[in-house]
Design brief:
Shape: globular
CATH superfamily of the largest domain: Winged helix-like DNA-binding domain superfamily/Winged helix DNA-binding domain
Number of domains: 2
CATH class of the largest domain: Mainly Alpha
Number of strands: 3
CATH architecture of the largest domain: Orthogonal Bundle
Largest sheet: 3 strands, antiparallel
Number of helices: 6
Radius of gyration: 19 Å
Structural class: mainly alpha
């Protein structure tokens, strides 16, 4: 007897939801969850307990966008303001991130990565690159182009869903 896994097309939430859209959504979410679990396992293997993939993604976004705001992280990561405030506060406590009030608006925090944070980002980028290579490295040019177009379309659709829900 075989086990049905969420990444298989047969896996859906219920027979009533047995559509391509629901199946594709469930499979995509399962794939994303699996990727996060792999990242988390590889991070723990390197003794980075206490930092998860989302923490590292936030830190690395701050490194790529010095002086960005917590609101920028809210938008980029799809988390709420409270989650991002807690996450950036914890990264600051660990000495990986600096939060400084904006000169014009003291309610806005400007984010920058410390030297220790930059070192963690380099370490995380290497783990992320290894997983990305395993997932996408064998795609030919046409497959890469097709995936890029689909991901761009999904991002645009998600932005519209978010805008419509506000």
């Amino acid at each position: 007897m075989s086990t049905i896994h969420p990444s298989q097309p047969e896996y859906t939430l219920s027979a009533a939801n047995d559509t391509f859209e629901v199946s594709a959504f469930v499979r995509l979410m399962a794939l994303f969850g699996s990727a996060q679990q792999v990242l988390k396992a590889r991070m723990q293997a390197d003794a980075e307990l206490g930092l998860g993939p989302i923490d590292m993604a936030a830190l690395c976004l701050c490194q790529k966008n010095p002086g960005g705001t917590q609101q920028d992280l809210v938008k980029a990561l799809g988390k709420d303001k409270g989650q991002i405030a807690r996450l950036t506060g914890e990264l600051e406590k660990q000495g990986l991130l600096l939060r400084t009030p904006d000169a014009q608006d003291g309610r806005v925090w400007r984010l920058s990565v410390t030297a220790a944070g930059a070192k963690k980002c380099s370490w995380f980028f290497a783990i992320e690159a290894e997983l990305a290579q395993a997932l996408f490295g064998d795609f030919n040019k046409a497959e890469r182009s097709q995936l890029d177009a689909m991901l761009t379309a999904l991002r645009e659709r998600m932005d519209k869903v978010i805008a419509d829900s506000v």
